[in-house]
Amino acid sequence: MFTVSRYPSLPVRVLRELPWSHSPLMRPSDRVEGVIRIVAMVVMLAAVPVAGAAGTAEYASAQVSIAAENAAKTQIPATISDNPVTESHGDMTGHVFSQTDATVSWTFHGQPGRAVVGVGRSARPGDAVSIWVDRDGRWTSAPLGSDAAASRGIGAGVTLLAAVWAAVVGLVALIHRRVLRLHDVEWTRQWRTLDDHPLGQGS
After folding, report:
1. 128-133 and 96-108 as β-strands: parallel, antiparallel, unpaired?
2. Tens of pLDDT along 181-191?
3. Which runs of consecutive H residues, i.e. helices, occur in the chain?
């Protein structure tokens, strides 16, 4: 009576596939690919702190930039000069939202200004609204919040990390396809050798 050996466990299979394994079934191309995969994993892990450092640097830079931008903005009163217009818009998810805009006018340091800005749906001509202008008295967006710098920093870090990981994964996949082609060529060559020298016959 004999027993059928159990399929090797995952750790055993992983050890057998390492490039320094003594398995006679591993071809040189398998060992090279194994080394490349290990190097790729090291690069991907090393990219994490690098991306973190890049994100931190971008966060610090964004803080300075946003602070300078916010310092140049001034909130002033403006007057609605025509009837507000409400328009509906839809996004990619099918959600429909409404936006009400109106032309407003103002005076900043003696210089008049006009712009179309968002207002409340109940706004009427002659109503006063608050807007933000730059040093030249031109309408601008409201100052950015403290979370804007964090968002830029996180975005920079994640973008860098994703780019590195995508490049590494793509390179490994390309090499794997190349190795498979080499294996196919080698199998074809060996089958042709068997066809030329059938089993049981001499050379």
Report:
1. unpaired
2. 876 676 677 66
3. 10-16, 28-71, 147-196
Q: Which of 89, 114, 95, 96 is nearest to 104 (CA)?
A: 114
Tokens of 160: 């860098």
- Non-local (6+) Cβ contacts of 171 within 8 A are 40
Distance CA 181, CA 177 (A): 6
In this structure, the number of other CB atoms found within 10 A of the CB of residue 131 comes to 21
Is pTM beyond 0.90 here? no
Number of H helices and E strands in the chain, helices first, is 3, 6
- Residue 93's pLDDT is 77
| pLDDT at 175 (0 to 100) | 84
| H or E element, residue 57 | helix 28-71
Could you identify the residue written with the tokens 């931008």? 69
φ and ψ of 29, to 5 deg: -65, -35
Q: Tell me which amino acid residue 99 is.
A: Q
Show the tokens assigned to 24.
Answer: 């006679």
3 state SS of 132:
strand
